[in-house]
Amino acid sequence: MKKVIIVLAIILRAQGLFAQNYTLGVDLSYVNQMEDCNAVYYENGTAQEVYSIFSEHQAQVIRIRLWHTPDSGYSGFSDVTNSISRAKAAGMKVLLDFHYSDTWADPGKQTRPRAWSGITDINLLADSVYSYTFKVLSDLKAVNILPEFVQIG
Asked: Which ranges in the chain belong to alpha helices (H)?
């Protein structure tokens, strides 16, 4: 009997160790651009607000990428502000992804934004990155849409 109790205790403890809380998230960086191309999002055949669709399906966090000065304007500050506002209205948290580029960036290709392309002094570049990051977050805070999470790239 003692062995059975010990085995049960070990099993119950192991279940606690492996039971983890997960957060369901989705990258909606393209939504505004797709809607400007007349994309419509449906749930059960009815057009609905895309953020609400994901929220109603238990998504808790959206990821939005931010490019410094994109040619198209999409994924720039104004576009990102719109996306964050929509996510907050749907009751979702936001992960803001700073790319520190004007376009796609990844480990194999990290092109500086045009605004920083002529900077050769590493201290000046570091100050530019800091100032830009601080301004973005300060501007979002000023309109009460500060993201809950921030990541680089």
From this structure: 2-18, 31-36, 50-56, 77-89, 122-142
